[in-house]
Amino acid sequence: QVQLVESGGGLVQAGGSLRLSCAASGRTFSAYAVGWFRQAPGKEREIVAAISWNGGSTYYVDSVKGRFTISRDNAKRTVYLQMNSLKPEDTAVYYCAARRLQLIGPGGTYDYWGQGTQITVSS
After folding, report:
1. pLDDT tens, residue by residue, 89-103
2. What HEC string does 24-81 produce?
3. pLDDT tens for residues 39-75?
4. Are 24 and 78 in contact (CB under 8 A)?
5. Distance separating alpha carbons of residues 30 and 14, to the nearest angstrom
């Protein structure tokens, strides 16, 4: 029902910045909450940030607070993750995911997932 495609990943030096984009299909995308997740080799997937359908509510994991900003442009059917002051421990595959449930945070299940984009931060 919903297809998500991430872009904007790459190699960056520690302290640098990247902006990830999640482009979505479907006219009803504006009704979905969206989360950004990441998974590093040998580690569990973790939620990084999430945003409600209208951008009124956001969530960030403690390790990225003050460095990452999630936003959305429903007219463009796109959600963004601005990542500043990147650290080597931010290295992971980043995924965006969507759900109709407007629960912003680590709880609940996300129904639609993108294929991911690699972010590598060198020291």
Report:
1. 999 999 999 999 888
2. ECCHHHHHCEEEEEEECCCCCCEEEEEECCCCCCEEECHHHCCCEEEEEECCCCEEEE
3. 999 999 999 999 998 899 999 999 999 999 999 998 9
4. yes
5. 34
